[in-house]
Amino acid sequence: MNSDTELAPAVRSILEAARERSGGDAVIDVDARSLSDALADAEAEGRVPVIAEVKPTSPTAEGTRDDDPVELARAMVDGGAAAISVLTEPTHFGGSPDALTRIREAVDVPVLRKDFVLDEPGMDVVAADLLLVIVRFVDDLEALVAAARERGFQPLVEVHDRAELEAALAAGAEIIGVNNRDLARLEVDLETFESVAPHAPADVTLIAESGVSSPADVRRMRKAGADALLVGSAVMDHGAGDSDVTENTRRLTRAESAESTTEETT
């Protein structure tokens, strides 16, 4: 794990809070919904595979959304989301394990627990179909990936550069997210995914994370090799509390079909 001094202050604060939180009382056993099946279903139906994120707020958001998390998740599924990501970090993102449980009971797509899981006890907090594991924050990545699978989770292993990609592959990761946000400066650059993706094996599911805010961004990431996109802020639109989450999701899941329609009419 890299030194905290290399991280943005907001990220260091998030990690400090994560270390102070306790894990669950018992080892979780999950009967997970398949992400690969969900992505394939989206492709077959002509939708861009989007993992839409229920994120009440964040250190980089312009505001907070106080909507019922379940209603937000349902709206995202109505907009064509192939899966739902739920922030369970309470201090900086306004999330909770309870919100994830309620969402998973209410929708029929896979649900990702997005949090800052640093060790095995941190996994045993709430059942989800996928679990985020961030390479930069983990000491023994291979052991944590294996522990996630033993519980039934599908581990989504997050990387930011080629060295982290190699570490993820060495640990046996099959679902890899490339975060376009630099956790040292909190800056976003879509070229990050474009530079990392060519080095991933074809049999790995690649997810572009952060910075996707428009249909053009969707098409750019898909052209670069993204099998799916994890999108939070563009769907939640924290700056507009009454923004239509269903429509925000739909404009991204239909980005490729919308391009085809435009080309046909020009």
From TrEMBL:
Q: What class of enzyme is it?
A: lyase
Q: Where is this region: Disordered?
A: 237-266
> EC number(s) for this protein?
4.1.1.48
Q: Which UniProt keywords apply?
A: Amino-acid biosynthesis, Aromatic amino acid biosynthesis, Decarboxylase, Lyase, Tryptophan biosynthesis
Q: Name one GO molecular function term.
A: phosphoribosylanthranilate isomerase activity
Q: Give the record's GO biological process terms.
A: L-tryptophan biosynthetic process
Q: Which domain of life is it from?
A: Archaea
The UniProt record lists the keyword Protein biosynthesis: no
Cite the record's Basic and acidic residues compositional bias ranges.
247-257
Q: Could you tell me which pathway this protein works in?
A: Amino-acid biosynthesis; L-tryptophan biosynthesis; L-tryptophan from chorismate: step 4/5
Leader peptide range in chain numbering:
none
Report the residue ranges that make up the Indole-3-glycerol phosphate synthase domain in this protein: 15-239
Q: In its keyword annotation, does this UniProt entry include Lipid biosynthesis? A: no
Q: Which PROSITE patterns match?
A: IGPS
User: According to its UniProt record, which reaction does this protein catalyse?
Assistant: 1-(2-carboxyphenylamino)-1-deoxy-D-ribulose 5-phosphate + H(+) = (1S,2R)-1-C-(indol-3-yl)glycerol 3-phosphate + CO2 + H2O
Q: Which family does it belong to?
A: Belongs to the TrpC family.
Provide the protein name.
Indole-3-glycerol phosphate synthase
User: Native species of this protein?
Assistant: Natrinema salaciae
Protein encoded by which gene: trpC
